[in-house]
Amino acid sequence: MAASSKTIMDLFKQPAAKRLKRVSSPAPPTSTPTPTKLAAFCSSSSSPIDGGKHDQNDVASSNPHPSLLEPSSTPPSILTAEEKSRIEFNKALARARRNLKLCSDKIAKCEDVGCVKLEELLVEETWLGKLPGEFQKPYAKNLFKFVESEIQRSGFPIYPPQHLIFNALNTTPFDRVKVVIIGQDPYHGPGQAMGLSFSVPEGVKVPSSLVNIYKELQNDLGCSIPSHGNLERWAVQGVLLLNAVLTVKQSQANSHANKGWEQFTDAVIRTISQEKKGVVFLLWGNYAQAKARLIDETKHHILKAAHPSGLSANRGFFGCRHFSRTNQILEKMGISPIIWQL
């Protein structure tokens, strides 16, 4: 993270002309995209913002206030769409890193006595404002007691690490949600889970489901296949990577299912459905597709396909073209598309 923060700050310390020259990601098209234009969103294998690499466990010692990321020497009125998009991404990234640091600091203060409360680890203000009183409901209190007990006394590691349990919500604020990808529960192997569905930290072997997602991206948009499985850049752009269950015991898939997490994440999905408009929901597999009952299809867009796992990807995931279709839907609504290339 230290390297990432240095890169961000160094970028904005440079003169505007030199800084803007480095921007290489394509500006969002203003018309309905053709396949060629959609492929442009996979034209760069890394970002000039962060050098293309960062570990979600790293925390910057200091993050700039988002307003400091606005170039002071170039009037906003003459910035190109590409430049404005870059600035907005940097602000969102700084906000996500701030939230991560807040959670890490809470854990560090209580590390010796294990006193941290799970409800204190959702720190993104927009979600707290949209889910008032949710943590005070009986199911949530029972859920948090169970998870806290598992963390302190189960004898098995609980994934993801505590500061990343609400990573999906802390990284993708409510007001930035454009797309929702629903998973089932976190990866249960050591070092895999990072609180974002389908995502693993850099340096961890890319799981088979994510390998298949990358293959479909390549076939759909011509994206090059990255060497890592960190999907944070999607989350920062507005892709909510939400697992239905947010914790799991090591080596025991679904071990925290039916404990209350589903009720909480259903509330998240229902809130998006009720209070936003035009969100694209990507429902892969029967488990995710069952969540369609929570979504108002008169206001939102639902794309369904088979799960990308090795057992089912050939049964309808490959060829679904969900990534290009998502961008077509967003652009038709006048919303900037997702740059899917990592």
Note down, in words, how this protein is organized.
This protein has twelve helices and six strands. It has 342 residues and is of the alpha/beta class. It has a four-stranded parallel beta sheet with strand order 3-2-5-6. The two termini are 17 Å apart. 40% of the residues are buried. Mean pLDDT is 84; it is low at 1-38 and 43-72. It comes from Coffea arabica (Arabian coffee). This is Uracil-DNA glycosylase. Excises uracil residues from the DNA which can arise as a result of misincorporation of dUMP residues by DNA polymerase or due to deamination of cytosine. It catalyses: Hydrolyzes single-stranded DNA or mismatched double-stranded DNA and polynucleotides, releasing free uracil.
CATH-derived architecture: 3-Layer(aba) Sandwich
**Separation, N- and C-terminal Cα atoms:** 17 Å
Q: Quickly name the level 1 CATH class.
A: Alpha Beta
The percent range for strand residues is 5-15%
Which stretches are low in confidence, meaning pLDDT under 50 for 5 or more residues running? 1-38, 43-72
CATH level 3 topology: Uracil-DNA Glycosylase, subunit E
**Largest beta-sheet characterization:** 4 strands, parallel
Average pLDDT confidence is: 84
Number of domains: 1
The Rg value, from CA coordinates, equals 20 Å
CATH superfamily label: Uracil-DNA glycosylase-like domain
Q: State the secondary-structure class.
A: alpha/beta
